[in-house]
């Protein structure tokens, strides 16, 4: 993207002019990232954004959140394949959350009320699956692949076996200390496992950037439409509350949270039409399947990872995660100022606002002119 390129040139001339609001940034330095997500048919924009910005995507890892991780890994493989990006390896993540289960989640809902979107913990629905939805519940076989959901094409490539997502993350931060951004836009299970497997993992990464972490949205959940309640609930974090707590209290040099801000830009037909003015397999999939109901959640987190200066308003707050199963906020975050915080938590950069026009320009360029392995 043109403005990004000129920004890079300028920053290398004078790092201080474009000093980021929340990270020591050296834009001439090679940047690496591992992208962990619950990948889907139209969920490829984050990796297109990353490669478009010149970030070396070391690997893609799959997370159980909207559906089981294996189904997500297959979506990652398929959506890489359609754009000749299969040189980026895909690693399987943890199939199960640390302790949460379908039955446990359903019991929690019976007490505290249902979520409009339950992700992988929605009851099994054979009709929905036959119509192309990714599988849910049915924990008797979480490795079952539902082929009908591969609207992008069924993958002809395979994920790496013999090394878990968490092991891969650890290996790579040790190989490139201080340079690997960990991006997590699904549940935080894999990140938590890496944190617990290797006590130096978090501090050896460059940062952790997540999608999720809404604050002060309860009134929106009550007074708006069900869709409004949906986009203000925190399913990514709630699928695995204990992992969320482990990941968000670990000693990453920086943790960046794209929570409320991830709802700032909602997909519109006008924008989809504009993107599809340039025809390629990605613009077609986005045009056909992204829809106009949801915000650009995961894309927002990636844009902030790529260029922190896109954030126009941020707060430094101390963050904790509610891990009390009996709480209606189980799996949600709570923020504090330092004078009042409990022990064993840390500060995070909570992004409040981004530059919408720049963000949309980034998406547009990445999807219309996607990089392929030939460019990497
Ligand atoms: C930025 O990174 C490059 C490559 O790692 C290094 O050569 C350069 O000294 C760094 N600049 C600053 C200001 O840290
Ligand atoms: C895999 O190959 C088959 C047969 O050529 C093709 O129909 C399908 O679209 C391919 N999958 C992807 C994700 O490109
Ligand atoms: C992928 O590579 C094939 C063979 O080189 C080429 O025909 C096709 O246009 C490429 N697709 C994309 C989306 O770059
Ligand atoms: C199952 O999915 C179908 C198709 O999406 C839907 O019409 C139906 O209401 C779902 N059933 C339940 C019990 O949610
Ligand atoms: C930044 O965002 C916070 C939280 O939404 C808000 O309270 C504050 O007024 C904003 N600051 C500016 C300068 O807009
Ligand atoms: C966040 O905490 C770290 C480690 O305690 C500290 O070095 C840093 O200055 C804090 N950042 C802000 C903005 O308070």
TrEMBL record:
<dbReference type="GO" id="GO:0006152">
    <property type="term" value="P:purine nucleoside catabolic process"/>
</dbReference>
<protein>
    <submittedName>
        <fullName>Related to inosine-uridine preferring nucleoside hydrolase</fullName>
    </submittedName>
</protein>
<dbReference type="GO" id="GO:0008477">
    <property type="term" value="F:purine nucleosidase activity"/>
</dbReference>
<dbReference type="InterPro" id="IPR001910">
    <property type="entry name" value="Inosine/uridine_hydrolase_dom"/>
</dbReference>
<feature type="domain" description="Inosine/uridine-preferring nucleoside hydrolase">
    <location>
        <begin position="34"/>
        <end position="360"/>
    </location>
</feature>
<keyword id="KW-0378">Hydrolase</keyword>
<dbReference type="Pfam" id="PF01156">
    <property type="entry name" value="IU_nuc_hydro"/>
</dbReference>
<dbReference type="InterPro" id="IPR036452">
    <property type="entry name" value="Ribo_hydro-like"/>
</dbReference>
<comment type="similarity">
    <text>Belongs to the IUNH family.</text>
</comment>
<keyword id="KW-0732">Signal</keyword>
<feature type="signal peptide">
    <location>
        <begin position="1"/>
        <end position="19"/>
    </location>
</feature>
<dbReference type="InterPro" id="IPR023186">
    <property type="entry name" value="IUNH"/>
</dbReference>
<keyword id="KW-0326">Glycosidase</keyword>
<dbReference type="GO" id="GO:0005829">
    <property type="term" value="C:cytosol"/>
</dbReference>
